[in-house]
Design goal:
Layout: E1 4-11, H1 24-39, E2 47-51, H2 57-68, E3 74-81, E4 84-86, E5 94-96, E6 102-104, E7 107-109, E8 112-113, H3 114-122, E9 126-134, H4 148-152, E10 161-166, H5 181-193, H6 199-212, E11 219-223, E12 238-240, E13 243-245, H7 247-259, E14 264-268, H8 275-282, E15 289-293, E16 309-313, H9 320-330, E17 336-341, E18 357-361, H10 367-377, H11 383-393, H12 397-402, H13 407-423, H14 429-436, H15 440-448, E19 452-454, E20 459-461, H16 463-472, H17 478-491, H18 496-509, H19 516-527, H20 534-540, H21 542-545, H22 552-563, H23 567-574, H24 581-597, H25 601-614, H26 618-634, H27 638-651, H28 655-672, H29 676-692, H30 696-713, H31 716-733, H32 736-753, H33 759-770, H34 778-794, H35 799-812, H36 816-832, H37 836-852, H38 856-874, H39 876-882
Parallel strand pairs: 1-2, 1-3, 3-9, 9-10, 14-17, 14-18, 15-16, 16-17
Antiparallel strand pairs: 4-5, 5-8, 6-7, 10-11, 12-13, 19-20
Helix pairs in contact: 5-6, 5-7, 10-11, 13-16, 14-17, 17-18, 18-19, 19-22, 22-23, 22-24, 23-24, 24-25, 24-26, 25-26, 26-27, 26-28, 27-28, 28-29, 28-30, 29-30, 30-31, 30-32, 31-32, 32-33, 32-34, 34-35, 34-36, 35-36, 36-37, 36-38, 37-38, 38-39
Length: 890
């Protein structure tokens, strides 16, 4: 059981001996300290207050005698504010000067020697002892250890401790017009550190304050005091006789009073929140705190009153003129004032009073406090009924106890909770309120009580609201929910949260035609964000699978799914009937891309031919030729591909298709072995046009192809320039396919430029493996298999190429142009194994295919690779060390 705290507070402004100067602020400081102790949780009955004529040595002696015979242990706070005196003799002594003390010829009578004070305290059954003295000319000569007396009695485990603060040591202590500087800093420090402060932290705080004011510094003595514990950290809610006592908020009021020494603190709160109860708890005749209410009392002249602290309740009943007249009369008075009002007074007071007033809002009861109060009064309530009762009462103690629940608020509360659960979250608060026609105060209340969690994304309803919806059978507003997300996605067209919640809402409520446009926007947003939102795209396909026709949104989703390699699911969306020619064209183009990615090139060419046969619009024809050109390119038919891309460049009016066609023409010219200048001209013109159009996927393809052409030509410096730009663009696009393609080319480049055992090659091998190339689409996988095989063969590692080339043969056997590289690697593998005839046969077949297809780059590559392997077979060790220096082999 925690011992109670006894406080002795002494403040002496006036002295019986006229020669002793008065200390106007001493009584005020003592009262301020005593009030703080009361507000920090020490019962008023435990505070012994001695002011002026009551502060006599004998009175203190009597109290010490009374406390010394106490059967119960307690903690002691001793505070003295008045004069101190240090005698001039061989061994100076420090004295506390009481009201009836006398100083004559350097002798003090009826005073208390400071060292004796500690001896008296040591004889008390007090455990923790706090001695705080705001007086000048004091120093402890000899202090008896608080545990010594118990040790003599045989108790070596005494819990006694001592903490002593002297305001200025043997120097002078200063006060202002209304308060002493040391006590002001003391109260501020205790207010700041009351939760977990230590004596040293308090001492450092006060010392800093005194330093800033250029005043004498305090002295500290401490024995066995880890923390300052006489201030209660929190005081639980109490209620009796229909009144709720919120003692814990008084801790906050006390802090506000201390931190705003020269301003009026005004308590703000609605009827029933507990303003008047708090004011009554703060009032005290003993501590000279007077209570006034403008509802019941008449405000009179405070100068005639003895109170140094006045509480003015219900100030809001005054009109503007009366209020400003009141403040004018209060400003400048030594009396301290605390006001209370239903609302902030700053809209009514004159501007000159703004700096004199600070608002302190009284919070509603927390959910736990409110529910605890409800359980005490409504014992039959279930947990959910307690929650609902608390919400309807808005955490207001009076409404909870009197069951005065506002029907209008309840309806708004139901409407708001339904809207929150229906939407799942809100991003733009004002948009959310407007679409659902909600009151902001209700939403603010739910945020305040923690049932709406605020984050950078917006407001997210607590899971409890779902239970309330079910318990109260609240209606979810489908129309407003969808309208909110339609508006939100228009307002923030790149917001992932908007897109995800629109999709979720539609999966709950079902597809509607009006939603199609917004669904398309949502699919584009999620598709651009990489893999992390793939599951949302997959789950959203259910919206369309039951429809008998295709929509614009389902086509966009199919395109996204093809890009994300969800080929079977995309196919299910693409076989739907297209109700318009535009959708039919889009569906066909998407299916062509899908066929490319799964390696069905012949089927894609057939589909392109069907599209060109049916198309009548010039733009549709251009699209058809571009897609057929891509299909021919992937099939290795350079002449037909060149013809289609040339037609797109000559007749096309769509800049994006023209830009991409130029890039492909430059790539084909590079494969054929045309001059550097013409190849660069096509590719750079194309990428420049695509960059202006912000077609960054097209820009990436152009730079990647140019980088590949350069390394195959042996111009490694130009190659690295474009491949590094391509890699940056792939990162920006968040495309693993693009990144994998560029890394493949970088691997080929550094294999030949820096050598197979360079750190760059090793690093690239790890990156390619980590990217999950095995899950990539047909052409990327086909080329990656051969790139990895070449790298491992150059490094003399033959185990991996066996498995890799087995897969490569299956993928490239029907595509002559890409089979060239598989044959080259088979030749290198056979060379490693000493199968010279096999090696020669594979090599010759590769050379023959390259010549047939006019693939001069491929021809150059396999010849170069074979020459490297020739050197490896002649002197493997020597060759492996020299490979890093082979920049151009031709």
């Amino acid at each position: 059981m925690t011992p109670q705290t006894i406080a002795i507070v002494i403040g002496i402004s006036e002295y019986k001996q006229t020669e002793i100067p008065s200390l106007p602020a001493a009584q005020t400081d003592a009262l301020n300290f005593a009030r703080a102790l009361k507000n920090w949780g020490i019962p008023e009955s435990n505070i012994f207050l001695f002011l002026n004529s009551k502060a006599q040595k004998q009175h203190l002696e009597d109290l010490f005698l009374k406390l010394s015979v106490s059967r119960d242990e307690f903690n002691l706070v001793f505070y003295f504010c008045g004069h101190g005196h240090r005698t001039v003799e061989n061994v100076p002594k420090s004295h506390l000067i009481f009201h009836d003390s006398c100083i004559k010829e350097e002798k003090c009578t009826n005073s208390l020697i400071l060292d004796n004070l500690f001896n008296k305290i040591n004889k008390l059954p007090s455990i923790e002892n706090y001695v705080i003295i705001d007086a000048c000319s004091l120093r402890i000569n000899k202090i008896t250890h608080p545990k010594l007396e118990q040790e003599i009695k045989g108790d070596k485990k005494s819990r006694k401790s001592l903490f002593c603060l002297l305001s200025s040591g043997i120097e002078e202590s200063f006060e202002g017009e209304d308060f002493g500087y040391f006590t002001e800093s003391l109260l501020k420090g205790l207010s700041v550190l009351r939760v977990s402060g230590s004596p040293t932290e308090l001492f450092n705080f006060i010392q800093k304050e005194m330093n800033e004011k250029e005043l004498p510094l305090p002295e500290m003595y401490t024995i066995g005091h880890p923390t300052i514990s006489f201030i209660q950290k929190s005081i639980p809610l109490q209620w009796r006789n229909g009144v709720v006592y919120r003692h814990h908020f008084i801790l906050q009021i006390q802090s506000a009073l201390i931190q705003n020494q020269n301003r009026f603190v005004c308590l703000i709160g609605d009827t029933g929140i507990g303003k008047t109860t708090l004011c009554h708890l703060l009032a005290s005749e003993k501590l000279k705190v007077t209570y006034f209410s403008f509802l019941t009392d008449r405000f009179t002249d405070f100068e005639e009153r003895t109170s140094s602290f006045v509480i003015l309740d219900d100030v809001d009943v005054l009109n503007r003129r009366q209020l400003n007249s009141l403040l004018k009369g209060l400003v400048g008075k030594k009396t301290k004032f605390l006001l209370s009002s239903k609302h902030s007074l700053k809209t009514l007071i004159d501007e000159k009073f703004y700096g004199s007033l600070i608002d302190l809002a009284i919070p509603i009861l927390s959910r736990e406090e409110g529910k605890e109060l409800i359980r005490s009064t409504q014992t039959a309530y279930s947990e959910m009924e307690c929650e609902w009762h608390y919400l309807i009462s808005r955490g207001n103690p009076l409404r909870i106890l009197s069951a005065q629940l506002a029907t209008e608020f309840e309806e708004q509360l139901k409407k708001t909770i339904g809207a929150l659960v229906s939407c799942g979250m809100y991003i733009n608060k004002h948009l959310f309120l407007n679409v659902f026609n909600l009151e902001e105060s209700v939403l603010n209340f739910l945020e305040e009580v923690g049932l709406v969690h605020l984050s950078e994304q917006g407001g997210i309803p607590d899971d409890l609201l779902n239970e309330i919806v079910e318990e109260q059978q609240l209606t979810l507003n489908q129309s407003s929910t969808l309208n909110y997300w339609y508006s939100q996605i228009e307002e923030a067209p790149s917001s992932v949260d908007s897109a995800k919640h629109l999709l979720f809402s539609l999966r709950c409520f079902g597809y509607e035609e009006k939603a199609d446009f917004y669904l398309g926007l949502a699919f584009r947003i999620l598709s651009q964000k990489g893999k992390e939102h793939l599951i949302d795209l997959i789950e959203s396909s259910d919206l369309f699978l039951s429809l008998p026709f295709m929509t614009e949104a389902s086509l966009i989703l199919a395109e996204s799914l093809v890009e994300k390699k969800q080929f079977d699911l995309a196919r299910l969306l693409l076989i739907k009937r297209a109700p318009t020619q535009e959708l039919a064209l889009g569906s066909t183009l998407c299916e062509i891309q899908r066929l490319w990615k799964i390696g069905s090139i012949d089927e894609s060419i057939s589909l392109c031919l069907e599209l060109l046969a049916l198309a009548t619009d010039p733009f549709d024809l251009i699209k058809g030729h571009f897609y057929r050109g891509m299909a021919y390119f992937l099939n290795g038919n350079w002449n037909k591909s060149f013809s289609d891309f040339s037609l797109v460049c000559q007749k096309g009016q769509e800049p994006q298709y023209v830009g991409r066609a130029k890039c492909m023409l430059g790539t084909i010219l590079g494969i054929r072995g045309d001059g550097v200048e013409v190849v660069q001209e096509y590719l750079l013109n194309g990428t420049r046009l695509l960059s202006e159009l912000k077609d960054f996927a097209g820009v990436w393809a152009g730079w990647n192809n140019l980088g590949e052409i350069f390394w195959k030509w042996g111009d490694y410096k130009s190659s690295i320039l474009y491949l590094e730009k391509a890699l940056e663009m792939a990162e920006y696009l968040k495309s693993d396919e693009a990144k994998l393609e560029t890394l493949r080319n970088l691997l080929h480049l550094h294999l030949r430029w820096n050598g197979p055992f360079s750190s760059l090659v090793t690093e690239l091998l790890v990156k390619i493996e980590d990217l999950g190339w095995k899950e990539s689409d047909f052409f990327v996988k086909m080329q990656t298999l051969n790139a990895l095989s070449t790298a491992y063969l150059f490094r003399g590692e033959i185990q991996q190429p066996f498995a890799l080339l087995k897969q490569a043969v299956a993928l490239t056997s029907k595509n002559k142009e890409y089979h060239i590289y598989t044959l080259c690697n088979l030749s290198l593998l056979a060379k490693h194994l000493g199968l010279e005839q096999k090696s020669e046969a594979f090599f010759e077949r590769g050379i023959e295919l390259a010549k047939q297809g006019e693939n001069h780059l491929g021809l150059h590559q396999i010849q170069t690779d074979f020459e490297i392997m020739q050197q490896l077979s002649d002197d493997r060790k020597s060759c492996l060390h020299s490979l890093g220096n082979l920049s151009v082999i031709s």
